[in-house]
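My main concern about presentation is that the manuscript never shows what a single data entry looks like. For the editor and my fellow referees, an illustration may be useful. For illustration, here is how one protein appears when written out as sequence plus structure tokens:

***
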Amino acid sequence: MAALLHAIQHAAALRRERVFRDRRHPLDLYDDEQMFKLYRFSRQGCLHLINRLSRRIQHSTRRNHALPPSLQVFVALRFFATGSVMDCTSCIHGIHISTTSRTVRRVALALGELRDEVIKFPETMEEVKTAQVDFFNLAGMPNVVGAVDGTHVELHGAPLDDEYIYTNRKGKHSINVQLICNARYKITNVCARWPGSTHDSRVLRNSRIGERFADGELPGILVGDSGYPLQPWLITPLRDPQGNAERNYNRAHCRTRVTIEQLNGQLKNKFRCLMGQGIQMSAPRACDIIIASLTSPKTLKNRNKPSKWNRMKCHTTPQIRTS
């Protein structure tokens, strides 16, 4: 009996005492400028995200000092903003790295559930007309409802069995993300599930948005670079323009399509997890992180200014089709 008591006491002595770290809340520590620098969102933007996600990420119990929804959002935003390894994010918030991993996953899935509410392609007559007028004011291209392009988000690693399909043309592992935006830098469609070896044209051809355009379900046209094939609903630049009319068309096309190029740059500058050495997660989880970043409301600024298309001497008839 004495030996048993001695063994129990010895085991209790060896058991590591639980330590609850001091969790400092960013809302109490930082002003608006510091918060935007650390989390890439203003105070109002962070509060907006917290209000939208609180119900979805609230823990059912406060057992073991469970993280409140507000702190969970800040942990995820810090990871999205820096793209660093998770131990850096865990240190700044006073939590364990395993808790950081679970929190980022939890918030990313919650943001993914808001995808259909935030990312919407114009389908009604009023929405289509507004998109066409906005693009027409840029460079005089009529009937345009969106600019499409693909951007590669690198992966720090890839599955060993399927490594070759994630290797892009630059020899790096990545996810090929297709984005469509309007003239106001608002993302209207995203497809983030294809490995890096997939060509942009194949992604569009096999995406739901491409199928709907091909079937005539959606009005208007898209603008894309020379990597896409010319379609009745997709216009591309001329490879060898002849005459002023064709050169003016290429200039107008370039000024219209540059919105998606600028959006890609703004997006990766805001969420550094999408650039650099790549997302240090498995491919399916990396896709969830990408969708979560794109779903965050009010992520980009509108830098477009109305331009006078007639300065370019475009000979395109200014007609706006609304059906």
The radius of gyration is 24 Å.
